[in-house]
Amino acid sequence: MSALPPLPPAPAVARSAAGIRQAGSPVAGFFLDLLIAAATLLGLSLLCSVVWGVWRGVEVGREAARSGTGLSAAADMAQLLGQPGALAQMLMALISTGGAALLVYAWRRRATSAERGISAHALRRGSTWGWTLLVAALVFAGSSFIGWSAKQLGIEPVPTNLPLMEQALANFPLFLLLFAVFLAPAYEELLFRRVLFGRLWAAGRPALGIVLSSAAFALMHEVPGTSANGLPEILQLWLIYGGMGAAFAWLYRKTGTLWAAIAAHAINNAIALGALVVFGTG
């Protein structure tokens, strides 16, 4: 989770029998990274679901054996198995999304010793943390303004993860704090800023990197069809999440360390969690 150099080198050139040609397109590399991450995320999610289903099946079977009622019909069995609870869902998200981020980072965008040195130097600058606090404050203010403006138009979306957060807050508050404020910002910044944005930044196309990585960030947080939100609500959430992604990418490039983006993301999530505790809404 180290930074790229503030002035990344131009793309390397490779020689072939036909002469000199440019190395593979950074845009193609971006979408390949995204495809690998998405496939890994889905695969790990499926694996986690299977493991959870087997574990619940064993539990239900043991309970049926103790009670002497025997196994139920398929429909009743599905009802007995139920759905993963808040803790299980957070663990699945940690394994699937965090695993995808670590895999793509290690395989495709591992930091060099020089990049780690630049990041370590940036961490010692006071301006790094000044920019971090400023961006975190602006992200919060911007999200609040967008939400308020949309509410005046009758648009009030419900974030897809809000029911999970409410359930986790009621039953596993300490793990929710660890997950939302520390773990999720780390693996999301590793994937979306270090790997996806970083590839296009290193290729000298930071503006395109901000646009594409922020769009991917927004889409991951609000997937159409996974909630009751209509098109206006989805567009509002995309605007908020996309703006957050763009701000964190800008901060990463400005400071030269991914830790600044992680810290700003963590502050934003802590504020959202605090709002959920105090006001009952994210």
UniProtKB/TrEMBL annotation:
Signal peptide: none annotated. GO terms for biological process: CAAX-box protein maturation. The keyword Transmembrane helix applies. GO terms for molecular function: endopeptidase activity. The chain crosses the membrane at residues 30-55, 86-107, 128-148, 168-187, 199-219, 234-252, 259-279. Pfam families: Rce1-like. Residues 172-271 form the CAAX prenyl protease 2/Lysostaphin resistance protein A-like domain. Coiled coil: none annotated. Keywords: Membrane, Transmembrane, Transmembrane helix. It comes from the Bacteria. This is CAAX prenyl protease 2/Lysostaphin resistance protein A-like domain-containing protein.
